[in-house]
Amino acid sequence: MRLQPLSQLFQGARCPDHPVALDLAAGGPARTWAEFAAAAAWTAGRARRDGGRRWVLACTEAWDFAAGLMGLLLAGRTVLLPPNFLPRTLEDLEQRADGTLRTVDSAAAPPPPEPILGGRVEFWTAGSTGDPKGFIKDLAQLEAEVAMLERSFGHLFQGGPVVGTVPHHHIYGCLFRILWPLAAGRPFLCEPAGDPEGFRLALHQPRPAALVASPAHLSRLPSLVDLGGIATLPAVIFSSGGPLHPWDAMTWRRWVAGGVVEVYGSTETGGIAWRNQSEDQESMEWTPFDDVSLAFRKGALEVTSFRAGPEPVRLEDGAEPTTGGRFRLLGRLDRTIKLEEKRISLPELEKVLEAVPWVTRAAVVPLPGARPVLGAAVVLGAGAPQDRGVLARTLRAHLAQRFDGLALPKRWRFPRELPYDERGKLTLEALAGLFRPGSRPEPGR
Description:
The protein is of the alpha/beta class and about 450 residues long. The protein has 2 domains: about 5-240, Rossmann fold (3-Layer(aba) Sandwich), CATH 3.40.50.12780; about 340-435, GMP Synthetase, Chain A, domain 3 (2-Layer Sandwich). It contains 11 helices and 23 strands. Residues about 440-445 have low confidence and may be disordered.
């Protein structure tokens, strides 16, 4: 089906019985375009009746969210998308808004064939520090993002629905699970598929689905789900929110021949580049999207594109150009810290720890105190020593071959998995929480 610009969704191009979404919980037939258009019309009518320019969209269910989002945009509103649906978060965001939409009704006639002329989306994110921040996107920028995704990856779909393990209210989930499927005429699955049973049910489709996931989910699912027992594996897998570990990329490639398409970007810039890791070393590098220009300023990546806004955006990501217009990411610049005037690269420490055969994942975080120290959270694999004191001493000795004593972590934790959030992000706050009193006992040093 031809891609329909988001601003023209309600201009009569879709058949009333065209499938928009699948609701496994309801167990009935696909929800249709006629239902969706009616729900969006109801939302637009309510927003016009109640007034106000800024509305919080607090719909936890994907169908209501999609209809609510398009209905509010149809009414020309600015839509505020929360980082989560916790009561305090919504209360704080509602202070910045004129109305809140939590549920959607479909008891309305479909909207007349009219374009969406106004409306903006404000994506709110807690960021790595926990401080909320909003990033505004107008509809033209979101349209451009969807068009870029379709140009780049539309040929990878095989007719199945779009299935997601990531939240629909963050920019990655909103684009890949909601807006892109709506524009392309592909049905999306209403339920998230992050848990093993939901994942199995979501993939049980007549045609191969497209999976929208995070690195954290892609890391865990192979050990929780018998992939060999799933009759219809995904046609394509997308991953975003952080770099996918090469081991996980190779694991999925054994089951899905096309591998995992990783998309690098941010809430502020949208998609910047993509890669698909394989045994070829060049596949570790990133290829910019066709509407993006890049510059490398003092080791940092600077992005220019219509989707990012009128001015270049400098990211706190170290990067260097390679060949063929590609580039290599070198880690977060803001993760190089100073301890007693010595610069220490936390990503480099983590890389060396993960080189130990029985270390699966590692994360290093600065811990506050009268004398700041580093803490290391290490996820263990097969063959690891059982004694925690031996573990800590062995890993410190391994690091001491490359780093001086000041850079060696003083505190250690060995969780079953790292504390990724629902977006697949590993925040400083969550990592530091592993070392607070009342968490796991401190191992010997």
